[in-house]
Amino acid sequence: MKQSLFEKRHAQDWQRFATRLEALEGSRRKSESGAGFSREYRQICQQLALAIDRGYASHLVEQLQQLAMRGHQQLYRHRSQFTAQLLSFVLADFPRLVRAEWRWVALAGLLFFGSLTLMALLVYGYPDLVYSVVSPADVAGMHAMYEPAARRIGQTAERASSTDWLMFGYYVMHNVGIAFQTFASGLFFGVGSLFFLFFNGLMIGAVAGHLTDAGMGATFWPFVVGHSAFELTGITLAGAAGLKLGWALVAPGRLRRGEALRRAAQISVRLIGGVMMFLLIAAFIEAYWSSMSWPPATAKYLVGASLWLLVGAYLILAGRTPHAPD
Amino acid sequence: MSLSHAEPGFAAPLALLDTRVRMETPEGIDLIVRPAGLLSRSIAFGIDLMIRGVLLGALFFVLGTLGDFGTGLFMLALFIGTWGYMVLFEVLHQGRTPGKQIMGLRVIHDDGTPIGWSASVLRNLLRFVDMLPFGYCVGAFTCLQHPLFKRLGDFAAGTLVIYRDVPPQRPPLAEATALNPSLPLLLEEQRAIQAFAERQDTLSPARAQELAAIVTQPLQLSTSPDPHYPVQQLKGIARSLAGES
């Protein structure tokens, strides 16, 4: 068949398909424009193959190629049952993933909590050590923050409840930023994640050791115990995701480095989704519960301990049954 | 025509000379995409940065009047602006942020399918690494090194930034009397002649004559002292190939 005849015969179909594509590209809503789409798309594909095979002019081939490309984008368009996916991720997939990657989680946890505990004990024993990681100005700032006389504690000495909003925003911005940093820097063969895990452990340990030593433990510990479960676990998991990413580059196994990285990244990005969830919860608790000073310290410790138990039980037990909610 | 011959039209498609990439789809056709280079991507990023700057700046003044509550909201907005802007636009707006839309770019998966949540989150989180040590040095370097202009984030997420196609202009059919070629032509040859007829307006007359003269002999075309005669003949063949009289 000659090209002009071919064009004459199908020009109307192409025009109609193009109009339909425009409608689909313009909106994300479901519409009647979806009915029969795949049949028309297959037709375009077939006509494109024919046009190439018969050696028709390049402008015609290009026109069909673009129609096929646009049709392809619409046919394979990202379809999400967002709520259902989210629910199954929270209830089952995320804890399962954490258990499947337990080696990285254990390594990151060891590094982070190990450096934290060690530094806290060291600073508690040799108080001057705190100045090796925290500047004197920051130490003074911490003193003002956790002064036992302060009615509401946290970032500033006196806080009204409207400040809770301020602090919520601040914690989200700051903590999630740290977690993302810890994760992304894992791309440098894991070194970045190792560094940030270790460094953040040292900093937090130094602060905790110093404040306890300086006699402010009574304000410091009840404040942090509430949100620490979600926050510290979140940072550990972010580090684990980063380490996994880096290890794929160090030891790709039988795959090429690029392919190994892509596969590791697909898994670790889901870990990061869970980290986001943890850190949002942590920021919420930190801004609205931890900052309250009226509950007695015992209540705060009790809530903190049960939150730690909750996080532990969630990561270890959730999603064990094969038919978790879909 | 039997398939056993090594006909160019049936052989595997030739590698493309320019930066375009073929992607085979389940439908058995090749999609051809053009990866976007460093400059247009940088400009698109600059535009996005400006849009975010202006929006957040305006928001800062509005929410600033609300005291601490407003500042908290502003920080949340800042968080969403920093980490969510690119992801939300890429996933919900067919792979295009406003900057990319202005520059005619869009993001797709390596296999040509539209970008999804996990790939978009990944490529945008790893921006942090591409930005190091300052001003996107790592990203620019890897982008220039990679044949498909990928930065590290694209590499890990398996994504590709491509140009959106502009609709092809239909070139006017060559003005000539249709002429049947004296020899059967292979597909590649037919396409070459058609491409020549489409583009000879953009060539200088001397160059067009020079090119046309090359094939006069092999195609056994009649000769004439007029130097423009071979060009006219090729245009005639192209016209007859297209099926016009």
UniProtKB/TrEMBL annotation, chain A:
This protein's UniProt keywords: Membrane, Transmembrane, Transmembrane helix
InterPro entries: SpoIIM-like
Pfam families, sorted: SpoIIM
Keyword Glycoprotein tagged: no
Coiled coil: none
Sequence intervals crossing the membrane: 104-126, 168-189, 232-250, 271-289, 301-319
Protein name in UniProt: Stage II sporulation protein M
Protein's organism: Pseudomonas petrae
Automatic annotation (TrEMBL), chain B:
The keyword Transmembrane helix is assigned to this record: yes
Membrane topology per record: Multi-pass membrane protein
Keywords: Membrane, Transmembrane, Transmembrane helix
Pfam families named in the record: RDD (PF06271)
Domain RDD: 36-152
Database matches in InterPro entries: RDD (IPR010432)
Compartment(s) of residence: Membrane
Keyword Membrane applies: yes
Sequence intervals crossing the membrane: 49-67, 73-92
Protein name (record): RDD family protein
